Amino acid sequence: MSENRAAFPVAAICRVLGVSPSGYYAWTKRAPSRRAQTDAKLIERIGTIHTASYGTYGAPRIHAELAAQGVHVGRKRIARLMRQASLAGVSRRRFVTTTVRDGGRQAPDLIERNFSANAPNILWVADITYVPTWAGFLYLAIVLDAFSRRIVGWSMGASLHTQLVLDALDMALGQRRPSQVIHHSDQGSQYTSIAFGQRCEDAGVRPSMGSVGDAYDNAMAESFFATLECELIARNRFKTQAEARLAVFTFIEGFYNPRRRHSALGYLSPIDYEFQCTKTASTPGQPDPAAVLAVVKARPGSGAARRKASATAGLDHRCARRPTAYAGRDEGTGSQAEQRNWTKKEPIVSDQPV
What we know:
single chain, alpha/beta, about 10% strand, about 35% helix, 2 domains
């Protein structure tokens, strides 16, 4: 009504809308309600959190951040206020693969899509992505700890040479100093190279690789790259590779590892999640998450084998996916994937404390 007072009489507008002129004039002089005042303050806090997340947080993560600050409000109310303030999270874009095979010797799949780990330095996942710039692609290799989703190693370069993944692995080894950790990746030429295999052997790392052309076999690394692309790459245009390097470094070490809340971690950041688990493990009477995993000598099947396997704690249980008939040199043509040339799976054993 206030916007149309210059074009129409107030009495006519009130008659059309079915309200009284006296009620309209009383409303214009009335102070905002307590609910409206609270919403205004809440919108201000939501805007601050949204800006601190580089404009990536949606209602669920903003709800978790407010709860951590001691502000308890409903998620639907936060979503309504974000729509009112024209704030929104980011969405994902399509993923472009950088996997190139060269016929090198691949390692066995030691995890079979089971990315669970009950302590740090049991399972690492690794992959390579690219960051587009006006000066060409900048390639990023990462090593991610499956326990806390923390990026423990990364490196960037202008080419897809093997040194890219070696630098990421060396950074992870220098930070964590693991023993017999599983390093899972795809079958890219960098990971099947002789230099990478020799580095894993020297450091006591157990390489593992998924099947060909199947992103689900390395889903946890793909999930991080999707987060990186939708929250950083798709929202920026980098003129130089130096500018892209600084932005990726700031995202990983300044936001993702120490601050970004993960729904899979109870809306804690990777560093906070590791700290909380370490604190819980050191408290008397609490279960120890760093218990050594028993070796599974028989795979779950039927009868005694199933009972024996269910009594052990570890990652070596049968994968939930259905058996697939792979195609290869000695098989028929039923799939695009190649036949794996191994039959025995090594068990996952951890002797590292949290």
